[in-house]
Amino acid sequence: MTLTPVNGDPGHWRAPDWDGASPGTFAVVIGCSRYPWLKGGDRLGPAPMKWIKEAQGLGQLYVSALTARRFFDWICMDYDVDEAPIVSCRLLLSPTDEERTADPAISTHELTPTLANCKAAITACIRDINALPEAARERSRLIFFFSGHGLQSTIDRQILLPSDFLGDGLPSFNHALSTKNLLNGLNSIRVPYRYYFLDACRNDTNEIRQVQPKGDEFLPEYPTYHSYPKIEVDALLYATTAAQRAWQPRHPSEGPTLFGQALLEGLRGRPHIRLEDEGGKPSVKFFNLESYMNGRIAELLKSHQSTADQRVQPGGLPRPRVVTQLRAPYPATAPQVPMPPMTAPEISPDLLKSLGSKTTGDADRLGMRWRKAPDDLFKTHDAKQWPRENTAQERASTAPGQPAPGRPVYDLPAINRLVLPDRQAGEWRQDKALGRFLFGSSDAATLFAGSLQVSALSGQRLRRDDGMRLLNVGRKHLPGAGGDPDQTRYDITFALARFDAAGYWLQLFDESGTGAGALLATDETMFDGGQATYALTVDLTHDADGLTIGALSAAPLASGDSPVAQATRLWQRAQSESAERAVSKFATSSLNRLLQAGEQSPLATVITALVLLRADRLTLLGDLLRDLPGPSDGAVLWAEQVMRQHKDPKQAAQVAAGSLARLARRDLPVTGEALSLAATLMDRLSLDLEILDDATRRDFRTAKARIDASLAYFRPGGLFTAFAGFTAQNAWQVADGKLPGRGAKAAPPIPAEGRTEEQE
Which residue ranges are recorded for the region named Disordered (predicted)? Predict the structure, then answer.
């Protein structure tokens, strides 16, 4: 259906034959490329605070307004859903001069996406929906699209920056839209289908994170038992995984963002997305769209000769429902774009053998590659073996976006290094030549050898673990884009020989003294071969201040037949394709075995349940999570399941809040997704405290304060709960979820040199 401009209402487009009372689809489409108050803008101001300087550095975008306009074109010309045609769209754009030249129509009926205009557009859209008769409202739909800058703290807590960010006189970090407020504030709107497409980076910034921006929460949020009970889908689709950036071309002549291009191709049913018949029409369903986009974005990155890794991620309440139908006579099914191998460390046959694997088939099954180590590896310390550090003359002529002159620049192709058994326990820390061989530079070797530590969390105190063995180091060069500095990604495999029922704390400090760490969960099934193995990924950024930690994530090694390894493979496939596709490729009997691991392997049950919740396969879970032993993740996932399944909203809120209140006396969730869910659920349920008894209300508030405090350091994205931005002085409080100043006793860090039996 063609939309036409509404006179006197800039940015508002409406179907000319819509009577205002019939069901339809309502859309808000926002595209921000030009940010006057950010770097490169014509109104850049002073930065009296660190977070403002950090925010200004986000700079200008190139094709976000163009991408939003292309989405608007699709919704006008190609969007099709029986009984809910597009009837109204509010379009807000801040294009660059290059975008105006590339597409003159972008300036038609223009409205700038300032925060005030965005709020007014969303409010007007809700007003139009509420004006419908009830029967029409319950057959209508809502679509929200945003392309521009974004910042996040948890999986479903992201702020979207309007074009006038930092332009509000007294700059406020809350001068932005809140995805949490959009989801919670629209819960009471009686529309069953809501889709949010968020084409924004999910940048992780230390200074901004410390102030914990929430955005402008202008939509009223009611207790959860006032939510519309007939919501079928309330799904977000993020352009990238947590703490990552979304890739876009540098000029409008190269087209929209990669997320936008893949999204629009998928919504149009081409080139190779799986379509399903719905009402006699080929249809694009949400999970098929998610899976298709992951494969397509990987293809587009390759065509742009980019080594970046960008994978979409769902949020909210995703379900396998129709996003759009196709008018053209496309076949009901189509071949799927082949997926690239899952992201994982490269593993050699020798490493698999050392882990007790019967064959090298595990590596084949995971899509991993390996290179056999030469027979004389490490037998000589001939300097010709080591990666070359650039000469002083080369360092003085570094190009823009490269490290500042005087800092080493390293030639780092994709390299995989197996650590021989007699050097795994600690020689890689002492032998500088060996360290440089493994990590590619003397600076990186010093950083890892001096500060990478794994400690057991036994007895509510840190114990230095003598059983850490370094097994394998893979690394690859990630060139900076758009003036960003280069990075090196390290995929490290290590083993722990000592079982600790409380798990472990891993930490690493960069040259500035800033730490990153992760909780490492474990269970006895991981030690069947005498040691538990883990995969650690660390991105080190090469900038003027030296090597800094860009990201850190950890997970169990996904090889072998232990329940945890099998569950981790399931989770990896969900990350690389979609949860629905991962579950469909696992036999139901295998899923049931992982779920029934119970007391033997509660960690495997937690990981499997995460994927099943994301895939909306709740019937497989039953009441298994209600009293799951082990990590507190089970209590969080049970609360999420109850909120989705329970027929009585008030009883659901009581049961879910009671389950979350148990976190007042338990450790932090060991998976990042469970901690994110805990933060999201506690925000929603904090409005329901009046229906709780006094003891539950008190414990809920205690647990919520602890979760909220951890968000200042929390870094979502990996399987295990990860943190960054802490110092050596408060590392233990971060690991324990008790930050300084909140009643926790300060404790010194575990020493980098030497070992002690106990460290409080």
Answer: 384-409, 738-760
Domain 4-262+310-320 belongs to what architecture? Answer: 3-Layer(aba) Sandwich (3.40)
How far is 342 from 359, CA to CA, in rounded Å?
20
**Three-class HEC string of 548-578:** EEEEEEEEECCCCCCHHHHHHHHHHHHHHCC
Is it the case that residue 58 has pLDDT exceeding 70? yes
- 83 sits in the region (left: phi over 0; alpha: psi -120 to 50; else beta) called left
What is the rounded distance in angstroms from the CA atom of residue 648 to the CA atom of residue 661? 20
Per-residue model confidence (pLDDT) at position 466: 57
**Alpha carbon distances (Å) from 119 to 122, 123, 397, 465:** 5, 6, 48, 53
Q: Where are the domains of the chain?
A: 4-262+310-320, 350-556, 563-717
Helices (H), 304-385: 349-354, 361-365
User: What dihedral angle (degrees, nearest 10) is formed by the CA atoms of 316, 322, 326, 330?
Assistant: 110
Rounded-to-integer distance, Cα 62 and Cα 253, Å: 10
| Token pair of 383 as six digits | 């300097």
Q: Can you tell me the distance from the alpha carbon of 195 to that of 143, in angstroms, rounded to the nearest whole number?
A: 5
> Positive or negative, the Cα torsion across 701, 702, 707, 713?
positive
Q: What would the pLDDT profile of 632-691 be if each residue is shown by its tens digit?
A: 999 999 999 999 988 888 999 999 999 999 999 998 999 999 999 999 999 999 999 999
State the number of CA atoms in the 13 A half-sphere of 718 facing the CB. 27
> Quick one: tokens of 220?
């009223």
Q: How confident is the model at residue 461 (pLDDT cuts 50, 70, 90)?
A: low
Contact status, residue 551 vs residue 717, Cβ threshold 8 Å: yes
List, in sequence order, every residue forming a beta bridge with 476; answer none if it has no partner. Answer: 489
CA nearest neighbour of 558 among 352, 350, 353, 340: 352
* Single pTM value for the model: 0.81
Residue 357 pLDDT more than 60?
no
Q: How confident is the model at residue 307 (pLDDT cuts 50, 70, 90)?
A: low
| Terminal-residue alpha carbon distance, the chain | 67
CA distance 587 to 570: 11
Residue 467 tokens read as 């059983």
How many H helices and E strands in the chain? Answer: 24, 24
Give the pair of three-digit tokens for residue 726. 């802490």
| Element at 726 (helix H, strand E) | strand 722-726
The alpha carbon dihedral of 391, 396, 401, 404 has a sign of: positive
Cα dihedral across residues 556, 562, 566, 567: positive or negative: negative
Query: Contact 706/664 with Cβ under 8 angstroms?
Result: yes
Phi, psi of 492 (to 5 degrees): -115, 130
- Give pLDDT, residue 751: 41
Rounded to whole angstroms, the Cα distance separating 634 from 627 reads 7
Q: Assign residue 109 a region: left if phi > 0, alpha if psi is -120 to 50, beta otherwise? A: left
Is residue 721's pLDDT more than 60?
yes
* pLDDT tens-digit series, residues 126-185: 999 999 999 999 999 999 999 999 987 666 678 999 999 999 888 998 999 999 899 999
| 3-state SS assignment for residue 448 | helix
Mean pLDDT, range 504-529, rounded to an integer: 91
Average pLDDT estimate for 72-81: 95
Q: Position of tokens 């002492």?
A: 430
The HSE-up count of residue 650 (CA atoms within 13 Å, CB side) is 3
Burial of 513 (0-12, 13-18, 19+ CB in 10 A): exposed
**What percent of the chain lies above the pLDDT cut of 70?**
81
Distance CA 682, CA 707 (A): 9
Count of positions (residues) in the chain: 760
Most confident of 244-258, 332-346, 525-539: 525-539
